[in-house]
Specification:
Elements (H helix, E strand, L loop, with lengths): L5 E7 L6 H17 L8 E6 L6 H11 L3 E6 L5 H12 L5 E4 L10 H10 L4 E6 L7 H16 L8 E8 H8 L8 H7 L4 E6 L13 H13 L4 H29 L7 H34 L6 E4 L12
Helix pairs in contact: 9-10
This protein binds uridine-5'-diphosphate (UDP) and magnesium ion (MG).
Main location: membrane
Membrane topology: Multi-pass membrane protein
InterPro entries: Glyco_trans_2-like (IPR001173), Glycosyltransferase_2 (IPR050256), Nucleotide-diphossugar_trans (IPR029044)
Length: 325
Amino acid sequence: MSEPVLTIVVPCYNEEEVLPETIRQLRDLLQQLIAEQLVSEQSKLLFVDDGSQDTTWTIIYKASLRYPEVKGLKLARNAGHQNALLAGLFAAKMLSDCIVSIDADLQDDISVIREFMKKFHEGYEIVYGVRNKRDTDSFFKRHSAQGFYKLMKAMGVHIVYNHADYRLMSRRVVEELERFEEVNLFLRGIVPLLGFRSTTVYYDRKERLAGETKYPLKKMLAFALDGITSFSITPIRFISLVGFVSFFVSLFFGAYFLFLKFNGYTQTGWTSLITSIWLLGGLQLIALGLIGEYIGKIYKETKRRPRYIIDLDLFNFPLPLPVNH
Ligand code: UDP
Ligand code: MG
C-alpha cells in the first residue's frame, strides 16, 4: 500500500515576520516524514493568505515557485482565522488523504505531526493536538481560556480541553465537515460532534516565534461569544430564569414596603427605587443584547453569504506563468 498524501494547511494573516522560518521548518519536516515513509511524496504544504496587508502573499508565492511542495491559496479579503482554515481544508481535500491544520506562528510543536501521522496509520480519523501546559501564554490569556472551557462545558458544548486548531483530519472527516452549511462554523465545537475514531496527542506550546498575536482581546471575546451562541441556548434560558427570580423578589419586596407604609412608616424609598431601576435596567439590557446576539446569528445565516472568496488557488490550479503578485 502506498503512503497517504498529507497536506498541511496553514492560515496566515500578516505573518511576514515568521513565515520564511515557518516554510523552512515545515519543508524540513515534510522531507523527514517522506523519508520515514510516513507520508507520500505527493504531500504538500498549503499556505492560505487571509487577505494580509503585508508581504505574506509574496513570500508564499515566491516559495511556491521555488519548491514544488509549497502551495498557496489567496483569499480576496480577510475572512478570519476559522474561515481561512476552512478555505484551506476544502481546497486541499480532493488531493489529500489527510490534512493537518496548524498556525503560522510556530507556537505549536510541528514535530508532533509525526505522532499525528502514526495515529493516522493506526486508523484514527481525527487526531487532536492538546497543549500540556500553557505557561507560555500570558496570565490573562491562560485564565480567560480556562474560564472559556469551563463555561462551554457548563452550557453543554463538548470541546476538547486545551485544544486549539492543531489537528489531523482524514479526507472523510473534511468531507463530512463540508456538509455543515452554517456560515459561522466553530470548528472546535463541530469536529467533536462528527464522531469518528479520534484520539489526542499532547505537546508543549511555545511562544510565538515572531510577530504579534492576531487575536487581541476584542477578537478573543468575540470568538468566545460566537462559540457559545452558535452551540447553546442556555444563555437565553438563564436570562428568563433571572427574569422570573427578579419578578418574584420584587413582588415580595413590594408587599413588604406596602406593609411598612400601612404601619405608619413613611420611608422615602429612594434607595430601593433607584437600585431596582438600575438593576432591572441592566438586566434588561443584558437580555436584549443576548437576544440580539442570536438574532444577529439568524440574520447572518439566512443571508447564506460565502464564508470566504478565493482570489488564487495554486493548490488545485497551478499557474502556468509567473504573474505580478
Ligand atoms: N489568522 C488568520 N486570519 C485572521 C487572524 C489570524 O488567518 O484574521 C491566523 C494567524 O496568521 C495564525 C493563526 O490564525 O496563523 C492564529 O493566530 P494567532 O497566532 O495570532 O492567535 P493566538 O495563537 O495568539 O491565539
Ligand atoms: Mg499563535
